[in-house]
Amino acid sequence: MKSPLALRVGGNVLAYGATIVFLIPVYILINLAIRPVGDLTPAILPSANPTFDHFITAWTASRLPASIITSVVVTTLSCLVVLVFATMAAYPLARSTARLSTATFYLFMIGLLLPFQLALLPLYFQMRDLHLLGTVWSLVIVYTGVQMPFSVFLITTFLRASIPLDFEEAARIDGCSNLQAFWHVVVPLLRPALGTCVILNGVGIWNDFFTPLIYLSGSKQITVPMALYQFVGQYVSNWPVIFASLIISITPILALYLIFQRYVIQGFAGGLKG
Q1: Which residue from 151, 59, 173 is spatially nearest to 105, judged by alpha carbons?
Q2: Which residue from 224, 216, 205, 208 is spatially nearest to 63, judged by alpha carbons?
Q3: Long-range contacts of 127-135 (CB under 8 A, 24+ apart)
Q4: DSSP 38
Q5: Which listed residue, 85, 154, 213, 229, has the most CB atoms within 10 A of its CB?
Q6: What pLDDT, in 10s, does the model give residues 159-216?
Q7: How far is it, in rounded angstroms, from Cα 162 to Cα 117?
Q8: What is the reported pLDDT for 161?
Q9: What are the structural domain ranges in the chain?
């Protein structure tokens, strides 16, 4: 039988090895972003003459700065609206024992199975009739509907598994109304699940290319993936600038993850326990 020290050493070796494997693509991305045009050495080898001109080109010769602002607005508004409505929907679903509540919960789960493309044309015509095409509000509405099923599932199962009803009953005994118990007791305890929803929804919305291409096409507002696509040509693509743009574009979403990282595993594990 192996000693605990040997198990710890083996676990650390595996962890560091996995870290190195996952960091190799990041290293290649950075290496190619700072490599001069015409340098044909293998991507794994460091550049002999690194340059940051590609970052300057990506920032000044494109609509990347404006697209980052648009993506931040769309991602922030969409995540906030999803959290508000998903929390309000998940709370009665988690606390009610009626059959209608269970049926409603499974109705939300059907949304996890249905592809977004099924409603693509009806939603497009609806946004056109509402004069929302070319605006961020069309994206916020679509993303809210698309992300709601998973968010309701995660928050509902987290409520059932990790937040006992005793906390709310104690608050009501102390004189809180149902709304006060929900706001002052339940919502603070939901922070792991809410943080997980912010990360998972935010990453998906930030990286989405297809939906903005449909609803923002022809307008002055574009998101980050659409701005990156400007450097892709039919015959020639400026790959060093594309890689530099990728590094710039992942910075905001990486900062978001670092802010909420302590909630992610706890919230996701708590949701799956349900």
Answers
A1: 151
A2: 224
A3: 127/215, 132/215, 133/215, 133/219, 134/215, 134/216, 134/218, 134/219, 134/220, 134/221, 135/219, 135/221
A4: T
A5: 154
A6: 888 888 887 888 888 888 878 888 888 888 888 888 888 888 998 999 999 899 899 8
A7: 35
A8: 81
A9: 1-51, 63-232+242-273
pLDDT of residue 266 exceeding 90, the answer is no
Find the distance separating the first CA and the last CA of the chain, reported in whole Å. Answer: 36
206: nearest Cα among 243, 248, 261 = 248
CA distance 8 to 12: 6
- The stretches of 114-220 forming alpha helices (DSSP H) are 120-129, 136-162, 166-173, 178-181, 187-189, 191-207, 210-215
Mean confidence (pLDDT) of the chain? 83
Domain at 63-232+242-273, CATH class: mainly alpha
Asked if residue 255 lies in contact with residue 180, where contact means CB atoms within 8 angstroms, the answer is no
Structure tokens at 72: 């931040």
- CA gap 167, 185 in Å, rounded: 7
CB–CB of 73/89 below 8 Å? no
pTM equals 0.83
Torsion sign over Cα 216, 221, 226, 230: positive
What confidence tens digit (pLDDT) does each residue in 134-155 have? 899 999 999 999 999 999 998 9
